[in-house]
Amino acid sequence: MEVVHHSSAFLLPPAPANHHPSLSYALVVLNQRLPRFAPLLWQHAKLRLCADGGANRVFDEMPALLPDEEADVIRNRYKPDVIEGDMDSIRSEVLDFYIKLGTKVVDESHDQDTTDLHKCVSYIRDFTSDLDKSRLCILVAGALGGRFDHEIGNINVLCGFKNMRIILISDDCLIHLLPGGQNHEIHILPSVVGPHCGLIPIGMPSKSTTTTGLQWNLNGTKMQFGGLISTSNIAKDDTVTVHSDSDLLWTISIKKSQDRLHCQHHSYNFFKPFRSNAPYKLIILHARPTAASAMVRLPLDPYLGAPVMPHVENDLKRQATQVAEKTKEICSSKSLNDAQVEIRDCHGRNLLCHAVDKYNASILVVGSHGYGALKRLKRATREDN
Amino acid sequence: MEVVHHHSAFLLPPAPAGHRTSLSYALVVLNQRLPRFAPLLWQHANLRLCADGGANRVFDEMPALFPDEEADVIRNRYKPDVIKGDMDSIRSEVMDFYIKLGTKVVDESHDQDTTDLHKCVSFIRDFTSDLDKSRLCILVAGALGGRFDHEIGNINVLCRFKNMRIILISDDCLIHLLPEGKSHEIHILPSVVGPHCGLIPIGMPSKSTTTTGLQWNINGAEMHFGGLISTSNIAKEDIVTVHSDSDLLWTISIKKPQDRLQIVIWDPNDGSENKENLHILITYLPIFPVVGTAISRIFHHGEEDCHSDEPNSPHNNGILVVDSHG
């Protein structure tokens, strides 16, 4: 049976210009606060649409996401190709600004029967002959949060266009449909998504769902509202497979980089009282994943093959350097001036062994990765024997 | 057929002490930002539970909703009766603070199979014999937003406990279940909710739904995901009726302060403002037919929410200002 592959590579930096990715992206911006990685999604997209008030969001909020540059420069750079919708939310000065820059405006105020997202997806499907629809993925920012009926209306668009790849994205998570009757392989990029995930039988009960790669796998299990649905699950492996008789919504959390730093602040407070006469040496280790491990094995996909590795590698190096610098700043702010910060290229679990071997560590302090202290201990013990 | 009545009176100030209300409320606070009217929900509730990190929210954010008062005073006043959950989010200083004040802590870290909300609803159902369950309504703050799987998990609690009244509330909207096979009457309080609303066939298609009172009524039509579901509808009348063969989620928007007008009663012949009458009229005004008709006049009252249309002029009668209901 045909396997359908899914990945969240759009949350990594785009491939170099001369490289042909396997998927091409369109971006739709709805009228909610822009996610913090909106500029990244924008870079990936060949086509950028704003649905009505989404244009206000780009105009107002894109400069705030890129504070090192002038607002005018940002506004000129991040110019939508199309603004579509019933035009009852977009401010007139925003509309004028983008019209002057050449944005196409499609006024659909006559159509009150479909949501703004529905209109945008129809537009992309019907009026963009230069995009290869078989390889198209529509990214949607601003579909979640706010009024619940809007959110559900947007999810209904996923169900109404189930032969198209459409991904709803917020700061906290992403959602897309896994149509029933197909074998789905979801490639987890652990540097950007997970581990919290869920499978939801939206619209009708699922008689039988089977998964691999989750903490709590389903095994021909029945799912329905009022009974079992899979929420607060954990993606354990880098590939999760799903097969179900009916359509399921897949959702997975998006990692926040500041969570790591917040925890560090709290941890280092412990050491503050000892800073002037410490009976220990404090060493802070950061595990930097390699590009190969971060990108995971993907099926013969030229986008995610060797040519892109150096760019992912560079980005991971840059992120790790930023983490190290931030860590040094935090230590300095707490007068922990003797703390040593080291970056090591390995998986987190190997880092623990390295710490003991190289530094003869007496005490290891590790993060709980959001699992909670007891759950994490149980997991680590089972995993590492 | 039995008619089930629904209303959102919990978004109005509580009735005066001597007045018997038909429902008693319990409040569950989950771990998301508190809605701006959290203090109002707290006042209505006979029982207040925090689910794990919800206690952090009350501790951190309740004082911010009362910037004119001391944080300590607020924290002592807004003390949960119970903190329940697996305790992996609540901060230790928050837990200690509430334990000292007498809050009961129920540690459920052994139970990884049910959500925090599920645990709280079970607790309310099973361990609160002094609450009359037939008149009980559980208000839930912090169930929406954040991770989508959490949100859906919370909605699933509504489906699992469909014989209990449970309402999920955020700054933007409220959601509750309309169990199948019953005639539902939803009383709209236009000063606080609406007009945007929706009916959602969560979990399974609905073969036949019939409504009245909406802009786009449904007349025996089928609803299912991938096809028609009722979103971005408008509540036109003060009572919306719904009857369906399957469970539906009802959702309606909550008005933001800037969408509402202050309702003021001013009798220039009476030196005072007669606050007691003011209160009662605000509570019961929405059921008067006069609500929903246009504004006649706005007079400056000296309070910041009102604005002036013409200079104060003497009248012999009290002036009633009403909301135009959109």
Automatic annotation (TrEMBL), chain A:
<dbReference type="InterPro" id="IPR006282">
    <property type="entry name" value="Thi_PPkinase"/>
</dbReference>
<dbReference type="GO" id="GO:0005524">
    <property type="term" value="F:ATP binding"/>
</dbReference>
<dbReference type="Pfam" id="PF04263">
    <property type="entry name" value="TPK_catalytic"/>
</dbReference>
<keyword id="KW-0418">Kinase</keyword>
<dbReference type="GO" id="GO:0009229">
    <property type="term" value="P:thiamine diphosphate biosynthetic process"/>
</dbReference>
<keyword id="KW-0547">Nucleotide-binding</keyword>
<dbReference type="GO" id="GO:0006772">
    <property type="term" value="P:thiamine metabolic process"/>
</dbReference>
<dbReference type="GO" id="GO:0030975">
    <property type="term" value="F:thiamine binding"/>
</dbReference>
<dbReference type="GO" id="GO:0005829">
    <property type="term" value="C:cytosol"/>
</dbReference>
<dbReference type="InterPro" id="IPR007371">
    <property type="entry name" value="TPK_catalytic"/>
</dbReference>
<dbReference type="GO" id="GO:0004788">
    <property type="term" value="F:thiamine diphosphokinase activity"/>
</dbReference>
<keyword id="KW-0963">Cytoplasm</keyword>
<dbReference type="InterPro" id="IPR007373">
    <property type="entry name" value="Thiamin_PyroPKinase_B1-bd"/>
</dbReference>
<dbReference type="InterPro" id="IPR006016">
    <property type="entry name" value="UspA"/>
</dbReference>
<dbReference type="InterPro" id="IPR036759">
    <property type="entry name" value="TPK_catalytic_sf"/>
</dbReference>
<comment type="pathway">
    <text>Cofactor biosynthesis; thiamine diphosphate biosynthesis; thiamine diphosphate from thiamine: step 1/1.</text>
</comment>
<dbReference type="Pfam" id="PF00582">
    <property type="entry name" value="Usp"/>
</dbReference>
<dbReference type="InterPro" id="IPR036371">
    <property type="entry name" value="TPK_B1-bd_sf"/>
</dbReference>
<protein>
    <recommendedName>
        <fullName>thiamine diphosphokinase</fullName>
        <ecNumber>2.7.6.2</ecNumber>
    </recommendedName>
</protein>
<comment type="similarity">
    <text>Belongs to the thiamine pyrophosphokinase family.</text>
</comment>
<feature type="domain" description="Thiamin pyrophosphokinase thiamin-binding">
    <location>
        <begin position="184"/>
        <end position="248"/>
    </location>
</feature>
<dbReference type="GO" id="GO:0016301">
    <property type="term" value="F:kinase activity"/>
</dbReference>
UniProtKB/TrEMBL annotation, chain B:
<dbReference type="InterPro" id="IPR036759">
    <property type="entry name" value="TPK_catalytic_sf"/>
</dbReference>
<comment type="pathway">
    <text>Cofactor biosynthesis; thiamine diphosphate biosynthesis; thiamine diphosphate from thiamine: step 1/1.</text>
</comment>
<keyword id="KW-0963">Cytoplasm</keyword>
<dbReference type="GO" id="GO:0005829">
    <property type="term" value="C:cytosol"/>
</dbReference>
<keyword id="KW-0547">Nucleotide-binding</keyword>
<dbReference type="InterPro" id="IPR007371">
    <property type="entry name" value="TPK_catalytic"/>
</dbReference>
<keyword id="KW-0418">Kinase</keyword>
<dbReference type="GO" id="GO:0030975">
    <property type="term" value="F:thiamine binding"/>
</dbReference>
<dbReference type="Pfam" id="PF04263">
    <property type="entry name" value="TPK_catalytic"/>
</dbReference>
<dbReference type="GO" id="GO:0004788">
    <property type="term" value="F:thiamine diphosphokinase activity"/>
</dbReference>
<keyword id="KW-0067">ATP-binding</keyword>
<feature type="domain" description="Thiamin pyrophosphokinase thiamin-binding">
    <location>
        <begin position="184"/>
        <end position="248"/>
    </location>
</feature>
<comment type="similarity">
    <text>Belongs to the thiamine pyrophosphokinase family.</text>
</comment>
<keyword id="KW-0808">Transferase</keyword>
<dbReference type="GO" id="GO:0009229">
    <property type="term" value="P:thiamine diphosphate biosynthetic process"/>
</dbReference>
<dbReference type="GO" id="GO:0016301">
    <property type="term" value="F:kinase activity"/>
</dbReference>
<dbReference type="GO" id="GO:0006772">
    <property type="term" value="P:thiamine metabolic process"/>
</dbReference>
<dbReference type="InterPro" id="IPR036371">
    <property type="entry name" value="TPK_B1-bd_sf"/>
</dbReference>
<dbReference type="GO" id="GO:0005524">
    <property type="term" value="F:ATP binding"/>
</dbReference>
<dbReference type="InterPro" id="IPR007373">
    <property type="entry name" value="Thiamin_PyroPKinase_B1-bd"/>
</dbReference>
<feature type="region of interest" description="Disordered">
    <location>
        <begin position="305"/>
        <end position="326"/>
    </location>
</feature>
<dbReference type="Pfam" id="PF04265">
    <property type="entry name" value="TPK_B1_binding"/>
</dbReference>
